Each structure stands twice: as C-alpha cells, then as structure tokens.
C-alpha cells in the first residue's frame, strides 16, 4: 500500500526550532525535513507540543529561535500559503454564522484562485467531488452548526483539500469518525499522494489506522524522540509499551 516516489525534493525543513508560550519551551530544538510525497505521522502523548509544532509550520506562530523553510523559502518571506492545506484540531466550537457545508468548503478555494477571482462552476464541481469522496455530499446545503463532530471534521478536511494543496497539515483528522470512514479518508489521502506527490504531515493518536499508509514516523515529546520509517520503528519500538517507555525516558532525561 505504500507509495515510494523517486523524487526526493525537500519541501519543508526545520532547523533547531524552539518555541514557548510562557517561560518553558513546548517545542525544543526540533530539526527534521519532509520530502515531496512523504506521509509523515507525528505521534506523541497529550500536551507534548504536536499541535504547536503544526501551528509553527502553518505560520500561525513564530519560533523563538531556529529556522523553518517551506518550498525552499524562509517562512518569514514565504508567500505561497495557498499551497498549504491546514486542518486544525477540530473542537466542538463551530462558526457562529450560519454557513453551509458547501460555503465553508468553497472558502478553502479562495486562496488558490486569488482573492479577486470569482469562484465559478468548476470550483463548485471540484468541491462537490471532494464532498463525495468524504461521503458528506448529502450535507452540502446543511448549516455547519447542525453537524455531528465527525461530519464537521470531514468538512474541515474537505476545506483543507479544496485548495489543491502540495503540503497538507492535519491535526488528528480522523479522531471522531467511524473506522470505515477513517479508512476511506486514508485511501483518499494515499491516492492524492501517489497521483500528484502530495506531502502529508498527520498528527495522530491512532497508529493502527495510519500505519499502512505512512512513509515516516516521528515520535514527539517536546523534542524528537524517534524518527524513521515504520519498519525501523517496528525494530526499535515494537510495542506500545516500548514507545511509552521511550517517551518516559525522554521526560526524565530532559527534566
Ligand atoms: N495558546 C496557548 N497558550 C499557552 N499554553 C499553551 C497554548 N496552547 C497550548 N499550550 C500548552 O502547550 C503545551 C503543548 O500543547 P499542544 O496543544 O501543542 O500539545 P499536543 O501534543 O497537540 O496535545 P494534544 O495531543 O492533547 O492535542 C501544553 O502544555 C499546552 O497546555
């Protein structure tokens, strides 16, 4: 099921990135890179800084020190944000205004088209096909405030996909959907990856769901505890218990 693309073009590079909200860092001296077509899973315990790491890459917060480069450009100067689809962790908070599913997903296309270009029929049919793939096309005229958690999650994923991203940043995209939908989402992502070299960074708690699709794994707890292929992880950290022990050891080590 894995796709091995010959292309090794590096599209994201983090060098010694550190970030704190208050006095102590939640992301500390983190360096890694992502190549075109990579499907990187970031695993780690609650509160380990995974969402913060993704927000740094999405340009929502700035590192205290270190560098981030996206598509070969320093993030400070990066101006191609429509190439990046970001799906934040979906909370129960919904937009206060009565937008429909179709409107919310269409809004994801605005950046790619340019703000002064009108969205047209082609945009609508693109959105429709994404909704179909995610099995929420029957909800397109529903107001997002009325959706279940899992449905809303898929709307946010559809919105991130609507801009035809080259890099997709997903914060627990399948946390509240049923196992069958979860698999169909993974299949869709896998297809986009093999068809057009989409690169994906996926924060997850659920290694079992994503294991067959990912090309690399980072186990994260403020720092990188492990980085490698799923096969390498199997050799070094074969059980969930070993992963937890490695995390506990890193906590102890870094105080
Ligand atoms: N806006 C904020 N202001 C202050 N502290 C924050 C803020 N957001 C997150 N934190 C803290 O930073 C740490 C890392 O949070 P983050 O959400 O990045 O972790 P996470 O690994 O994504 O957690 P989870 O798996 O629970 O989503 C936590 O201790 C959290 O309480």
Automatic annotation (TrEMBL):
**UniProt keyword list:** ATP-binding, Nucleotide-binding, Transport
A Pfam family of this chain: ABC_tran
Q: Which CDD domains match?
A: ABC_Metallic_Cations (cd03235)
Q: Which Gene3D superfamilies has this protein been placed in? A: P-loop containing nucleotide triphosphate hydrolases (3.40.50.300)
Q: Which residues form a coiled coil?
A: none
Positions of the ABC transporter domain? 12-247
Entry's Gene Ontology molecular function annotations = ATP binding; ATP hydrolysis activity
Domain of life, per UniProt, equals: Bacteria
Tell me the SUPFAM superfamilies matching this sequence. Answer: P-loop containing nucleoside triphosphate hydrolases (SSF52540)
Looking up SMART domains in the UniProt record yields: AAA
Instruction: State the protein's name.
Output: ABC transporter related protein
List the top taxonomic levels of the source. Answer: Bacteria, Bacillati, Chloroflexota, Chloroflexia, Candidatus Thermobaculales
């Amino acid at each position: 099921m894995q796709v091995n693309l010959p292309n090794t073009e590096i599209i994201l590079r983090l060098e010694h990135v550190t970030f704190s909200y208050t006095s102590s860092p939640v992301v500390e001296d983190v360096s890694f890179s992502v190549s075109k077509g990579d499907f990187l899973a970031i695993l780690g315990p609650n509160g380990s800084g995974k969402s913060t790491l993704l927000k740094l890459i999405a340009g929502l917060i700035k590192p205290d020190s270190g560098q981030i480069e996206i598509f070969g450009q320093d993030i400070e100067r990066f101006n191609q944000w429509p190439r990046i689809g970001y799906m934040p962790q979906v909370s129960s908070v919904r937009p206060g205004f009565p937008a429909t599913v179709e409107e919310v997903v269409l809004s994801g296309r605005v950046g790619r088209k340019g703000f002064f270009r009108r969205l047209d029929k082609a945009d609508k049919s693109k959105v429709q096909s994404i909704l179909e793939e995610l099995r929420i096309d029957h909800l397109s005229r529903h107001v997002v405030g009325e959706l279940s958690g899992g449905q809303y999650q898929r709307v946010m994923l559809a919105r991130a996909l609507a801009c035809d991203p080259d890099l997709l940043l997903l914060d627990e995209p399948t946390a509240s959907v049923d196992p069958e939908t979860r698999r169909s989402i993974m299949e869709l992502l896998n297809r986009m990856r093999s068809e057009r070299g989409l690169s994906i960074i996926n924060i997850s708690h659920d290694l079992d769901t994503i294991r067959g699709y990912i090309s690399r794994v980072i186990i994260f707890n403020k720092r990188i505890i492990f980085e490698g292929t799923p096969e390498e992880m199997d050799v070094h950290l074969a059980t969930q218990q070993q992963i937890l022990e490695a995390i506990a050891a890193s906590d102890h080590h870094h105080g």
